[in-house]
Write a structure and sequence with these properties.
Number of strands: 9
CATH superfamily: Glutaredoxin
Helix content: 25-40%
CATH architecture: 3-Layer(aba) Sandwich
Length: 200
């Protein structure tokens, strides 16, 4: 318990000392990116005929919170890819400063867990993380296609219980996607992403 409290205090101090990150807000147009997937192919935001948007998740191999959400990411892609909102995960930490986040370790994790979505390395100086303004892992950006561009419809957490999905009383990402699919505005477009601070 003392170790956990110390970690929380250290993370709070790190957040306080971090320079303010500018980034996307709800309603902004998301920039395109081209990042390497664990299968070696490059992945970008495509405007295919069946694409209505994307679930972009900034995550990592090494963050305990991200690990707790891996099965939920698989479930989200299973549910929403066929409805036009595929999930894209982006490993957000600098692999030279964090242990466990190398491209080889990403490939191992994706295979071990059976990821059914692209798992990309933000290798170019973490340019995509910086462009989006992501600060934590996991952190979600739901993009909704409008006139061949992708507008940010939601930013924040996946749900309100990192420890146990069955105890989550608010499923923010699912609710937002269901509202978009129904042609409704997103009722809660911003929530606080709880997790590990992205390491630069």
């Amino acid at each position: 318990m003392k170790i956990l409290k110390s970690l929380i205090l250290l993370q709070a101090l790190y957040i306080f000392l971090m320079p303010k990150v500018e980034g996307l807000k709800v309603g902004d147009i998301a920039p395109n990116f081209s990042l390497k997937n664990v299968d070696g192919k490059m992945v970008s935001l495509e405007t295919g005929s069946n694409i209505k948007g994307y679930i972009v998740v900034f995550t990592s191999n090494s963050c305990p919170y991200s690990i707790l959400y891996e099965d939920r990411l698989i479930a989200l892609n299973t549910k929403y890819e066929s409805q036009g909102y595929p999930l894209i995960a982006i490993q957000s930490n600098n692999p030279t400063t964090t242990s466990g986040d190398s491209f080889e370790e990403m490939k191992e994790r994706a295979t071990q867990k059976g990821f059914n979505f692209p798992y990309l390395m933000d290798a170019d100086g973490q340019a995509t993380v910086k462009a989006f303004g992501a600060t934590n892992t996991p952190q979600v950006y739901i993009l909704n296609k409008e006139d061949a561009r992708f507008k940010v419809a939601y930013i924040g957490a996946i749900d309100n219980n990192s420890r146990n999905p069955l105890d989550a009383t608010k499923r923010y990402v699912e609710n937002a996607l269901d509202q978009l699919l129904a042609g409704l505005p997103v009722e809660t477009p911003n929530t606080k992403a709880i997790g590990c601070v992205i390491k630069h």
